[in-house]
Amino acid sequence: MLRGLYSAGAGMITQQRRQEMLTNNLANIETPGYKADQASIRSFPNQLIQAMGTNHMQKFGTNVIGELSTGVYMQERTPNFRQGDLQETFNSTDIALLQGVVPTNEETGQQAALMFVIENSEGDLRYSRNGNFTVDGAGFLTTSQGNYVLDADGDRINVGNEDFIVRSNGEIIDANEQFIAQLDIALIADPDQLVKEGAGLLRYDGDNAIESAIDNAEATFQLQQGFLERANVDAAQTMTEMMSALRTFEANQRVLQAYDRSLERAVNDIGRLR
């Protein structure tokens, strides 16, 4: 009976974490470049149930009754890097990254991801699909949180002011068509190793070397100035999944309450001396 309590409790915890993930996705539906998280739910290893002290099962050469499920858990949450829709903003500092053809891992079937390269406040490299950029007081192209956008040489990009042009291949030129810099685009072969850090930034924890998509024959992309990539959150699907998670949570809750009533009766009634 106690195993049933644990299984129902594990199911409730799993659905609670799934609900929190879906709520976060819905809260970021207006965040440019946001990638919705997906839950990977797994079951704990099943256990074999054996009959002890009985000859009935042993005469058939086994005393195994069957398997017992020990519950489920949310193994991980991974971003879905599907391309989001574009929204025109008419703002020269907004840049949308459209992913074209990219390599696919033959073993996992996972496609590589293209990202802007960002330098955070500690000077470390981070990656993002949020092209909601701005120009700081010193003329550098930065994110809305003040992190620097890097060029193909790994340097900060000084555009001077907002009067600049971004070509589809990532070249940045001024109003006089003078070359300023080549905006870097990272090609990440295993995007499942990217970890969200907030403010639209992702940290890479993988072991593979990150290549540049600039002049890379294996990857194609296009940049659109004056546009933003919207979050790839499907509001209707997310609401449906939230309702499903809530119903599953309530079902496990009823099972837990049933076990609780059975235990209460076992303690107070069956064990009572008359």
UniProtKB/TrEMBL annotation:
Name under which the protein is recorded: Flagellar hook-basal body protein
Gene Ontology cellular-component annotations: bacterial-type flagellum basal body
Organism whose genome encodes this protein: Evansella cellulosilytica (strain ATCC 21833 / DSM 2522 / FERM P-1141 / JCM 9156 / N-4)
Domain Flagellar basal-body/hook protein C-terminal positions: 224-268
Domain Flagellar hook protein FlgE/F/G-like D1 residue range list: 115-172
Flagellar basal body rod protein N-terminal domain span: 5-35
Protein family: Belongs to the flagella basal body rod proteins family.
One of the protein's GO biological processes: bacterial-type flagellum-dependent swarming motility
Keywords annotated in UniProt: Bacterial flagellum, Cell projection, Cilium, Flagellum
Main location: other
